[in-house]
Design goal:
seven-stranded mixed beta sheet, four-stranded antiparallel beta sheet, single chain, mainly beta, 11 strands
């Protein structure tokens, strides 16, 4: 059974930073591409960042240069470092494994 557990969300002022973590279990973590998505109230769930099994990355235009996705296969964990946060980054952030499995989400709120 796959489990994805996100952590690291919270309330931060605009311009601040947060680091999200997603710990995975139940599958061979290194064999899966991983992603972070976010969903604001009343909006669809959108891609934030992806990282492949060989650590190639891709980002939504809105977060390029501010967010960094990384993975630690030894810890079965994917991270999202978020810098220069803006109020429009406020959303529930979800971890995804293999474009199939989802975590429960973690709330990120950026105050102006």
């Amino acid at each position: 059974q796959v489990q994805l557990v996100e952590s690291g969300g919270g309330l931060v002022q605009a311009g601040g930073s947060l680091r999200l973590s997603c710990a995975a279990s139940g599958r061979t973590f290194s064999s899966y591409g991983m992603g972070w998505y976010r969903q604001a109230p009343g909006a669809e769930r959108d891609l934030v960042a992806l990282i492949t099994t060989d650590a190639r990355t891709n980002y939504a235009n809105s977060v390029k240069g501010r967010f960094t996705i990384s993975r630690d296969n030894a810890k079965n964990t994917v991270y999202l470092q978020m810098n220069s946060l803006k109020p429009e980054d406020t959303a529930v952030y979800y971890c995804n494994m293999g474009n199939y499995y989802w975590g429960q989400g973690t709330q990120v709120t950026v105050s102006s």
